[in-house]
Amino acid sequence: DLDRITRIVQGTTRKDEAATRVLPMFFDDFEAYRILGLNPEAPPVAVKKVVDALRMSWHPDHARSEPDRRHREERIKQINAAWDLLKGVRVEAA
Q1: How confident is the model at residue 91 (pLDDT cuts 50, 70, 90)?
Q2: What are phi and psi of 68, to 5 degrees?
Q3: Least buried of 3, 66, 75, 80, by fewest C-beta within 10 Å?
Q4: How deeply is 54 buried, as exposed, middle or buried, from its count of CB atoms within 10 A (0-12, 13-18, 19+)?
Q5: Per-residue pLDDT tens digits for 32-71
Q6: From its phi and psi, is residue 24 left (phi > 0), alpha (psi between -120 and 50) or beta?
Q7: Please, which residues have CB within 8 angstroms of residue 33's CB and are 6 or more apart in sequence?
Q8: Can you list the alpha helix ranges (DSSP code H) found in 2-90?
Q9: How does the average pLDDT of the chain come out, rounded?
């Protein structure tokens, strides 16, 4: 699990080119697991650890530029929506 979390966190250190990409906000359970980089068979404890690691690594305070900040804010919304969906709480995106 720790190796997987490390790979996910390392994937967050992309250049600003990726910061302009728009991420989808509406998805199903399968897409939620994909967004979090997890197998649907992952135990709930592992899911929570990955979500916590993703939230820390994608936090907007780590942004290097304004486009990067916007991208991180969108990514955090996506991570939170995926987590809410997997917890069984359907959240409408604004």
Answers
A1: very low
A2: -65, -40
A3: 3
A4: buried
A5: 998 898 988 888 888 999 999 999 999 999 999 999 999 9
A6: beta
A7: 39, 40, 42, 82, 86
A8: 2-10, 29-36, 44-57, 66-86
A9: 78
Structure tokens at 90: 């359907």
| CA-based nearest residue to 74, from 33, 35, 34, 23 | 23
Q: Token pair 């995926």 is at which residue?
A: 82
* CA–CA dist 55, 50 (Å, integer): 8
User: At residue 63, what is the residue type?
Assistant: A
Whose CA is closest to 25, among 89, 86, 80?
Answer: 80
* Dihedral angle over CA of 60, 36, 77, 91, nearest 10: -160
Question: How much of the chain, in percent, has pLDDT values that exceed 70?
Answer: 65
Evaluated on CA atoms 34, 11, 68, 22, the torsion sign reads negative
- Token pair recorded at residue 35: 């967004």
